[in-house]
Amino acid sequence: MQTDQPPDSIKAFEDRLAEVTDRLPKRLKQCADYVAANKDRIAVSTVAEMAEGAGVQPSAFMRFCQILGFSGFSEMQRLFRDSFVGGWPDYSTRLNHLRETGTGSPAALLAEFVEAGRVSLESLLQGIDPVVLDEAVKVLSKARLIHIMGLRRSLPVASYMAYALEKMQVPAMLHAAVGKLESHHALREGDALLAITFAPYSAETIDLVEYAENRGIPVVAMTDTVISPLRKRDTVMLTVQEVDFGAFRSLSATLCLAIALSVAVGTARQED
C-alpha cells in the first residue's frame, strides 16, 4: 500500500489521502480521518499531539505518514510548513495563550471563539479554488430551481442561503426533512442541488445527492474534509473547514462562503 514518492503539494496530499483512506485498517483510518479534519494542525503540532488527537500510538501515526509516501511525520509536516510559509496562522499558540490567561468568563470564551473564527476565515481565503467557485456559481445561476439540503449543524447555513436567495428573487427550495418528510420528487430536469454536510455526514443529504445524480441533476456540494463522501460523487465541491475550540466548531467561514455564493448567484442571474 505504501507509495514511493511523497506528495509535493497540498493538492497532491489531499488526492493521496482520498485515494488510500478506504483501504486502511481501523487504526490508520483513524489517522486519516483526523488529518482530513485537522490539516491546519499539521504544521504546528508534534507527532505525539497528532497521534493523541487521532486516538492512536505515535508509531501508528508514523506508519500512516509512510503509507502516504513520506519518510515520517517530519517530512509531511515540512510540506505544510513550506506551503504556508509567511502566511500560516499560528492559531494554536494564540488559543493556548488565551486558555492560560483567560478566567473562563464569557468575555474570555468570546475572545477564543473570535480567534478561531478569524483563523477559519483566513484558511478559507487561502484554500478556496476560484475556478471551482466560479463553476459552482455557473451551475446554480442557470438552474430553474435551486434545491438546498443541510441538516443538523448545516441547517443554519442552508436556511440562510434559502432566505438570501429568496430576497434576491432566485427560485430556491429548502429541504429540511421536518417530520421525516422527504421532497425528493420535487427535483426536476433543469434544477440544481446544493448539498451542505460536515463530519459526521448526514445520511439524508448523501441520499438526496445520489438521487439527484441518478437523474442527471447537477450538484454543488459544500463540505469539510477531503475524505467527505461527497468527494466521490460527481459534484462541484467547495471545501471549507472550521477551526474548533473545546470541541465546538462555529460556522464563521461556512456562512461567509454561503453569503458570497448566494450574492454571486443572484448577481449572475440579474446579468443573464
General description of the model:
The protein contains eleven helices and seven strands. The protein is an alpha/beta fold. The chain folds into three domains: 74 residues, Winged helix-like DNA-binding domain superfamily/Winged helix DNA-binding domain (Arc Repressor Mutant, subunit A), CATH 1.10.10; 34 residues; 142 residues, Glucose-6-phosphate isomerase like protein, domain 1 (Rossmann fold), CATH 3.40.50. The strands form two sheets. A five-stranded parallel beta sheet has the order 2-1-3-4-5, sandwiched between helices. Strand 6 and strand 7 form a beta hairpin. The longest helix is centred in the middle third of the chain and has 22 residues. The radius of gyration is 20 Å and the shape is globular. The N and C termini lie far apart (50 Å).
Give the structure's gist in a few sentences.
It contains 11 helices and 7 strands.
Tell me, what's the shape? globular
Q: How many β-strand stretches? A: 7
Biggest β-sheet strands, sense, barrel: 5 strands, parallel
Q: Bin the helical content.
A: 40-55%
- Uncertain stretches: 85-89
- What number is the mean pLDDT? 82
How many structurally independent domains?
3
Give the CATH H-level superfamily of the largest domain: Glucose-6-phosphate isomerase like protein, domain 1
- Which strand order does the major sheet show? 2-1-3-4-5
- Could you name the CATH class of the largest domain? Alpha Beta
* Count of helix runs: 11
Q: Label the structural class.
A: alpha/beta
Provide the β-strand percentage band.
5-15%
- The termini sit apart by 50 Å
| Cα Rg | 20 Å
What is the N-to-C succession of helices and strands?
HHHHHHHHEHEEHEEEEH
User: What is the CATH architecture descriptor of the largest domain?
Assistant: 3-Layer(aba) Sandwich
CATH topology descriptor of the largest domain: Rossmann fold
Keywords: DNA-binding, Transcription, Transcription regulation
Pfam families: HTH_6, SIS
GO molecular function, one term: DNA binding
Organism: Rhizobium paknamense
